[in-house]
Amino acid sequence: MKKVLIIDTKAGNLFSLQAAIERLGFLSTIEETPSNEQYDAIVIPGQGRFGTVMKNIIANGWDEYLNDARKTNLPIFGICVGMQIFFEASDEDPGIAGLAWFKGQAQALDFPKKPMVGWANLTSNVWPNAKVYFVNSYAVKASEYSIANTTYGEQFCAAVKNGNFIGVQFHPEKSSQQGSEIIAMALNQSLKEGVTDDAV
Amino acid sequence: MQFNDPKNDLMPRIIVCLDVDKGRVVKGTNFKQLRDMGDPIELALAYEAQGADELVFLDISASNERRPTALKLVTDIAKNLSIPFTVGGGLKKLDDVKAFLDAGADKVALNTTAILKPEIINQTAVAYGSQCVVVAIDVDKQGDDLGVYINGGRDRVENQFFSWTKEVAERGAGEILLTAMHKDGTGSGFDTQLTNQVSEQVPVQVIASGGAKNEQHFYDAFKNGADACLAAGMFHSGEYTVGQVKQYLSNKGLKVR
């Protein structure tokens, strides 16, 4: 049975996410600090603020752990703020650097009603017509690694993929059956589409 | 919500409300008699399967002595359900709010407590984010008078309706659950005019509640600015499934999940 590491960034409860992962037949462990345990996939959940999550990542040494994992074939799956930290920064907390695996930064959504709350359709070749649940006030407008987009005021990047790491701005653990399929694809790395850099 | 706005991919949401008492879903026939409707998790999963976009559990937390049981139920719901859910009723202080969010609720609905201690809206938004805070407003319209009520509709407060809707948004509410008491139980549809006024004036999502009896009522509310609609009776009675209402909306040209 595949073992999944869920990184606890102390930004919200993980009950739904862990249950969703286990319903798919994975074993899962929630860890606050890195260990020597071997895992088959890593999940970075993300509720809360960019700065809070990023500070927690650095304080516990997860940045080093993730930068090492990135060089392997281990699937790494970032959710919401867990995806935003793949980028360089966020306007939510200026001055705090992200992991910078992707160029760009999260910006405030430009729409009168904030936060964006609810189900939206994805524009995507990977998940055509998928309807998933979003809760966010910030998003990355565009990325060359985007595999799905959604519009709220302006179009933004709903999912990114480069080789073994995938990030989604929406909440697959709250997106019913569709979300479950997306989690399975991300953790099994069965998603062949998207851009893959040879030299990471 | 503007219909099929090219700048907004969000779809109108249908939210089913479940009243919980002593760990069971109940339906009040009058104030004294509660009819048992079933197990909360079984019903929640059935509504998820019907296509409900979210669920709201009310009064789950109403009594202090049953708090540990209520928290365990919330965690069980979080582990079983894969759509978002809100809990409300009886959350009197920030510690209550924290306990239920930490137990797995995606959002809390604050009504009486928001009026009595409005700073709890700010505190919850700062600690957990605006997306966790739904402020429920019970309003009764009689002629031109708009009365704001607390304690389950029993007591009128001095708050002016429109300024209160703006204040909760400024304090950090992520959504407003607008219950039109004058529509509740009438089956004459949501108060579309009031929904529209709030939706145009306040920069947060508005959930219309009170008065729904058929699928057209949902269409009318979405057409008039509702971002989401909440109903209970018409679904619990089995008269309609959420899927049937969504099919109707889809046939009328609305994008729904």
Automatic annotation (TrEMBL), chain A:
<comment type="pathway">
    <text>Amino-acid biosynthesis; L-histidine biosynthesis; L-histidine from 5-phospho-alpha-D-ribose 1-diphosphate: step 5/9.</text>
</comment>
<dbReference type="InterPro" id="IPR017926">
    <property type="entry name" value="GATASE"/>
</dbReference>
<dbReference type="Pfam" id="PF00117">
    <property type="entry name" value="GATase"/>
</dbReference>
<keyword id="KW-0028">Amino-acid biosynthesis</keyword>
<dbReference type="InterPro" id="IPR010139">
    <property type="entry name" value="Imidazole-glycPsynth_HisH"/>
</dbReference>
<keyword id="KW-0456">Lyase</keyword>
<keyword id="KW-0368">Histidine biosynthesis</keyword>
<keyword id="KW-0315">Glutamine amidotransferase</keyword>
<dbReference type="GO" id="GO:0016829">
    <property type="term" value="F:lyase activity"/>
</dbReference>
<feature type="active site">
    <location>
        <position position="173"/>
    </location>
</feature>
<dbReference type="GO" id="GO:0004359">
    <property type="term" value="F:glutaminase activity"/>
</dbReference>
<keyword id="KW-0378">Hydrolase</keyword>
<feature type="domain" description="Glutamine amidotransferase">
    <location>
        <begin position="7"/>
        <end position="183"/>
    </location>
</feature>
<protein>
    <submittedName>
        <fullName>Imidazole glycerol phosphate synthase subunit HisH</fullName>
    </submittedName>
</protein>
<feature type="active site" description="Nucleophile">
    <location>
        <position position="80"/>
    </location>
</feature>
<feature type="active site">
    <location>
        <position position="171"/>
    </location>
</feature>
<dbReference type="GO" id="GO:0000107">
    <property type="term" value="F:imidazoleglycerol-phosphate synthase activity"/>
</dbReference>
<dbReference type="InterPro" id="IPR029062">
    <property type="entry name" value="Class_I_gatase-like"/>
</dbReference>
<dbReference type="GO" id="GO:0000105">
    <property type="term" value="P:L-histidine biosynthetic process"/>
</dbReference>
<comment type="subunit">
    <text>Heterodimer of HisH and HisF.</text>
</comment>
